[in-house]
Amino acid sequence: MAKIVNSWNEWSRLRRVIVGRADGTMIQAPEPAVVRDFPEDGFPAGTYGPMPQDMVDAANEQMENFAAILESHGVVVDRPEVRDWSEEIATPDWKQASQFGVMPPRDVLLTVGPEILEATMSQRARWFEYLAYRPLLQAYFREDPDFRWESAPKPRLTDASYHAGPEFWHEFESLDEEEAIARFTMNRRWNLTEEEPLFDAADVGRFGKDLFVYHSSVTNAAGISWLTRHFPDHRVHVARFRESHPIHLDATFVPLRPGLALSNRKRVPLEEDMVKLFEINDWEIVPCAEPALDEPPPLCYCSVWLSMNTLLLDEKTIFVEEQEKAQQQQLYDLGFEVIPVPFWAVGPFGGGLHCATADVYREGDMEDYFPKQIPGY
Ligand code: ARG
Questions:
Q1: Which entry of 23, 200, 250, 359 is annotated as an active-site residue?
Q2: Which of 215, 234, 237, 248 is catalytic?
Q3: Which residues of 11-31 are buried (b: 16+ CB within 10 A; e: fewer)?
Q4: CA of 247 relative to ligand 1 center, distance in Å
Q5: What angle (nearest 5°) sits at the alpha carbon of residue 300, between those of residues 71 and 195?
Q6: 247, 265, 295, 346, best to mutate for ligand 1 pocket (most atoms within 8 Å of CB)
Q7: pLDDT per residue over 345-358, tens digit each?
Q8: Which of 70, 101, 152, 361 could cross-link 16 (Cys pair, CB 3.0–4.6 Å)?
Q9: Ligand 1 pocket, CB under 6 A
């Protein structure tokens, strides 16, 4: 029987990975956790529907191409199932008029060593996304006797999980960035309450024995507490950054190799102990390069900082978006072999090269890259 699942960090040699799909992606219907609002592109707040087919095709083409590049570097690529995300869904507690899609597996699946953990997620539209990965997870379970298949408690996501309904986002959008930072980021409070543990897998940065979890608009303190208890052999640290709408760590703070991390040049870390922890363990934190775009493309809810959303093949080789020349040059200067990958058409489907993938197998074991710790952090 084979060993299929193993990945402790973001940089060891990649051997197997899941790459998502653009098929069926929806501009999701409004719900307390999120309201999409693209008035210029035909989807003003309150409306929803499938992403335009030409955009789906363009994104899928780039994803196929990326999958082929990965395979040419000796990486086995698995893909989720195609499903209909336009269906209305319901639990006994609520109904949701549409789902989202399955482009970013990173958001749902957290691989830690021999374990893949299905995240709770915090949007109703994303409640059933795990189903698209089940055929893969079932196969890994059959073939790999050491695979630990875990699922976090399914959240109820009743109105009690949110401070306000969809109107929260209306108010949020009316604030400028500084006001939003003062009101929400500095108070560690967006629309999620602490009713139940909630987290997205993409809020977790894996650095061997140390996990950094972004306290964000989709991960609450209870979610971080649940992860801390779930991974007793790890040290789980809270990460926070100065940005108005934090969601997912991987366009904000990412490791590049042991001793080197890339930090968003605009989003300053707010946890002093986190910065200190890196310092006392001789890690260097470099600010990322300027992104190539001034504005995200149409129908994109991610920011231009997908420029730093990269995937490491190993400690020396990194996949970077083809047009992000400044980011490529910086990584080259830091000693990496840079493999450019066209991926801008994928952005509107939920992210970049890191979001679009979920680790299944990277070589190596759990190691301690932060032997000096800070008590209480
Ligand atoms: N928060 C990021 C930004 O817009 C997007 C990160 C997307 N990451 C992901 N795993 N889906 O700057």
A1: 200
A2: 248
A3: bbbbbbbbbbbbbbbbbbbbb
A4: 6
A5: 95
A6: 247
A7: 999 999 999 999 99
A8: 361
A9: 104, 106-107, 202, 247-248, 250-251, 302-303, 305, 350-351, 355
pLDDT per residue as tens digits for the range 278-320: 999 999 999 999 999 999 999 999 999 999 999 999 999 999 9
Range of the domain at 247: 14-362
User: In whole angstroms, what is the distance from residue 245 CA to residue 71 CA?
Assistant: 35
Is 370 part of any domain?
A: no
Q: Answer whether residue 56 shows pLDDT above 80.
A: yes
Taking the C-alpha atoms of residue 38 and residue 49, their distance in angstroms, rounded to an integer, is: 12
According to DSSP, the β-strands at 148-151 and 204-207 are unpaired
Residue 74 inside a domain? The answer is yes
For the cut 90, the answer to whether the pLDDT of residue 79 exceeds it is: yes
- Domain assignment present for 313: yes
**Rounded distance from Cα 202 to ligand 1 centre (Å):** 8
> From atom 5 of ligand 1, which residue's Cα is the shortest distance away?
302
288 has catalytic annotation: no
Joined tokens for residue 337: 């072999």
Tell me, in angstroms, the distance from the centre of ligand 1 to residue 7's CA. 21
Determine the Cα–Cα distance for residues 297 and 346; give it in Å rounded to an integer: 10
Q: Give the long-range contacts of residues 292-297, CB within 8 A, separation 24 or more.
A: 292/321, 292/323, 292/324, 292/325, 292/326, 292/327, 296/347, 296/348, 297/344, 297/347, 297/348
In this structure, which amino acid lies at residue 312?
A: L
Question: Looking at residue 370, what is its pLDDT?
Answer: 98
Q: Which residue has the tokens 């990460």?
A: 239
* Number of domains observed in the structure of the chain: 1
Instruction: Tell me what pLDDT residue 1 has.
Output: 64
Is residue 55 domain-resident? yes
Which ligand 1 atom is at minimum distance from the Cα of 202?
10
Tell me the average pLDDT across 112-127. 98
E strand or H helix at 116, and its extent?
Answer: strand 115-118
Nearest-Å Rg of the Cα atoms of the chain is 19
